[in-house]
Amino acid sequence: MRTQVAIVGAGPAGLLLSHLLSLHDIDSVVVENRSRAYVEARIRAGVLEQGTADLLTDAGLGDRLKTEGLRHDGIHLQWPGTRHRLDFRELTGRSVWVYGQTEVVKDLLAARHEHVHFEVDGTALHDLDTDRPSVSFTDSSGTPRRLTADVVVGADGFHGVSRETIPAALRTQWERHYPFGWLGILAEVPPSTDELIYAWHPDGFAMHSMRSPVLSRLYLQVDPAERIEDWSDERIWSALDTRLGLDGWTLDRGPIVDRGITPMRSFVSTPMRHGRLFLVGDAAHIVPPTGAKGLNLAVADVAVLARALEAFFGSGRTDLLDGYEERALHRVWRCTHFSWWMTTMLHTTGDALDRELQLSQLRYVCSSTAAATGLAENYAGLPF
């Protein structure tokens, strides 16, 4: 098999890159070890930056986003007795969109499914230091395949093979594991809030988000060693009532249709380029979800790499490919810092000094236009 760009991973990053390249008549093939049904059903991020929404719309993928997505012009920050709204439109002129990653993937697959090999096995990367790299795999019928390309893109996430193909001696990695995780639920109940609530509470952080006008997404800070089996529906709703509670406001309950506990980490790995291999998204970096940056950061990587590949295949230019890593890493580290900052401001540690510093920071952000603007421009998204 032969293509111009071989893409490993059919998550939002790999599919979006394939779609953007197709708009410039650049051929690509995507290989994915999971089934299409699994890829479409994965529940992940739900908040799109302004730039992400604009990119999807400009690429012809915005029809359902416009009709089913929810535009939010701000968020609420809360601590006991206080709920304060930050107005992103007023502070930065930008908004965010609540539109689940599952929906983004469905839109992308509708456009690119014919170019994806699902349920492949034994994926391996070869000859990355040559101008004819390749990807070998066994397809869903059990037939061995080798896909030769000009460029290989690793969009296969943290546990994929792409990053590990780069020799360990060449890799530098930074990682932090946080001493807490998120217990997340999806509930069949209309949201009890108009915009997301980020709540600091002595018992631990809580968040009220949503996926649609009839689906609520809620989170609780828990110990990452907790077992989901130990959290009954009543225990979950009771903790949410306590941590999100505010006089005059009620949290509505409904059937819980999905639940899970997610550990939290910050992770960055370089290089993001090795020969003709380029890494995007979670293959190169992970951020805690507090700042809603994970999916958006992957989209930013793809936006930069797509432009570089358009120049390479269109006119033979290599300067943008050569500058891909440096340009991408500027945003990676900015988003890594913002996600760490939001996480450390809102999650309790049990330390009395941390408690007072967090409350001081929250009061400052909610009383200073400059501080509020800093949060808003990072949350709504810096330009690509």
Can you put this structure into words, describing what you see?
The chain has about 375 residues and is an alpha+beta fold. Helix content is about 35%, strand content about 30%. An eight-stranded mixed β-sheet has the order 6-5-14-15-16-13-17-20. A six-stranded mixed β-sheet has the order 8-2-1-12-19-18, with helices on one face. Helix 1 links the parallel strand 1 (about 5-10) and strand 2 (about 30).
Question: What's the average pLDDT?
Answer: 96
Helix fraction, binned, reads 25-40%
Structural class: alpha+beta
> Multimeric state of these chains?
single chain
Find the count of extended strands (DSSP E, 2+ residues): 20
Could you tell me the radius of gyration in angstroms?
A: 21 Å
Number of helices: 13
Largest beta sheet: strand ordering: 6-5-14-15-16-13-17-20
In angstroms, what separates the terminal alpha carbons? Answer: 34 Å
Please tell me what the overall shape is.
globular
Q: List segments where confidence is low: pLDDT < 50 over at least 5 consecutive residues.
A: none
